[in-house]
Amino acid sequence: MDALQLLVSGLANGCIYGLIALGFVLIYKATEAVNFAQGDMMMLGAFITLGLNNEAWLGLPFWLAVPLAIAVMAAIGYLLDALVLRRMFGQSQIAVVILTIALGFIARFIAGAIWGHEPQSLESPIAGMEVRVGGIVLGLDEVAVIVVTVVLTGVLYLFFSRTRLGLAMQATSQNQLAAYYMGIPVKRVHSLTWALAGAMAAIAGILFATKGAIDPNSGLLGIKAFAAAVIGGFGSLPGALLGGLIVGLVEPFSARYIAAGFSQIMPYLILLLILVFRPDGILAQVRQKKV
Predict the structure, then answer these.
(1) pLDDT 10s digits, 53-78
(2) DSSP letters spanning 242-253
(3) How far apart are CA 270 and CA 250, in angstroms?
(4) Which terminus of the chain has fewer Cβ atoms in its 10 Å neighbourhood, N or C?
């Protein structure tokens, strides 16, 4: 019984890690840049939802605040690329990495200045509700995280395989120059990819805030999600989800059956083993470039 409850809890946390990791992979595939502010975008999306839903602010209903916050984070992602990242074109990747780290610090400062540094929770309509499966009691919020992630994964699959924009994003990620010659507006596609990553971060942040407390430092969760993306395969969208699930499952089981302190170190031990024995990740997508 305990094992099944740990499994559901681990899957719920793993889904959140996986959604953040998806943002890392989306941006990397499209622009070959690593956005270390992805975790902070998750945190910011959660706080924007909290602000929209809070009666002291706008007091919007939860089901209205959620899509509005996702749209706001998509707009922030788009503007970040269009106004900031695009001006870094031609610079080294390390310069872009440093810039995204700085953006993360700015996001944490802004969130702390507006909402404070005390942990806060987002009250969803299903908060505190439980579902019983046999003799096991599961939190409905954790079940909702898993269901939303499964549905979102299906939507993303259809988006990338059936829509013109999704196919354009795939083409741009594989060969930017060829995509440009085929008439694809590469710069606009890059900005739309950042917008999609911002929306994904917002969804992850909302799910995280509904099942636990959030504060400005919650953005550091992005480091664990980055490890998940590397474990799964940094160029693979399914790998990002798989890596997130692995990290999410390892934490509760190692805390329960080994020692509590191991829950925080085990994901990075797995990362170390992956980098040593399979550097490209579990679901590696390595393409050889033809000259």
Answers:
(1) 886 677 789 899 999 999 999 999 99
(2) HHHHHHHHHHHH
(3) 9
(4) C
Q: How many residues does the chain have?
A: 291
pLDDT tens by residue, 155-195: 998 998 888 888 888 888 778 788 888 888 888 999 999 99
Interhelix angle for 38-53 vs 2-31, to 10°? 110
Q: What is the dihedral of CA 212, 218, 219, 221, to 10 degrees?
A: -80
**H helical segments located in the chain:** 2-31, 38-53, 62-79, 93-115, 140-162, 164-174, 176-181, 186-211, 221-232, 237-257, 262-277
C-alpha to C-alpha distances, 36 to 33, 102, 220, nearest whole angstrom: 9, 9, 9
Task: Find the helix or strand (DSSP H, E) in which 106 lies.
Answer: helix 93-115
Q: Locate tokens 């839903």: which residue?
A: 53
Q: State the residue for tokens 């099942």.
A: 211
Res 290 pLDDT > 90: no
Q: Which of 39, 44, 37 lies closest to 101, judged by CA?
A: 37
Please state the pTM of the whole predicted model. Answer: 0.90
**Shortest CA distance to 156 belongs to which of 19, 64, 32, 49?**
19
